[in-house]
Specification:
about 160 residues; alpha+beta; 3 helices; 6 strands; globular
């Protein structure tokens, strides 16, 4: 390699390092600004407020939690276990989501009866897949998702 080739490689290498540093700094700022705490979907508790949900079409592993007084897109309105004794065979995703969706609608009813616009919310059931079924004892969660907007308070306090 001649001197020109070495200089070109050094310049390209320097640019790549600079780009990597910028990407790292942008990511660090975004994380710092989010203000939320990362939580596993299997650790959610009743009343937790969700800052954002990044993937509702695939496997959702974690969410960002915030204080309910901060802007958020949803709130956990129900949690429970569908295999608390550990002896139930995984019922299949369709059956499991059907059971949880019924529980989610029931959990949303008190909030909707208190004057919250039912068209403004959709239930998001969180269920274990077959691999997580036994270890989590079938733990599920129901998140009330705000459609087309954000919440600034807990649903229990009128959203």
């Amino acid at each position: 390699m001649n001197d020109r080739g070495a200089a070109g490689v050094a310049i390209v290498g320097g640019v790549l390092v600079a780009v990597a540093c910028v990407v790292f700094l942008v990511a660090a700022v975004m994380v710092a600004q989010s203000g939320g705490d990362q939580a596993s979907v299997f650790e959610l508790e009743l009343g937790d407020c969700i800052e954002r949900i990044d993937d509702v079409d695939g496997n959702l592993d974690s969410v960002e939690l915030v204080e309910c007084s901060a802007e958020h897109v949803g709130e956990v309105v129900d949690v429970g276990f569908l295999n608390s004794d550990g002896d139930r065979v995984f019922p299949g995703s369709d059956t499991l989501f059907g059971e949880i969706e019924d529980r989610c609608r029931d959990a949303l009813t008190p909030f909707l009866d208190s004057g919250v616009d039912p068209r403004a919310f959709a239930p998001l059931p969180i269920a274990p897949d077959e691999a997580a079924w036994s270890p989590t004892r079938g733990r599920y969660s129901c998140i009330a998702l705000r459609l087309g907007g954000v919440l600034n308070a807990s649903l229990a306090n009128g959203g």
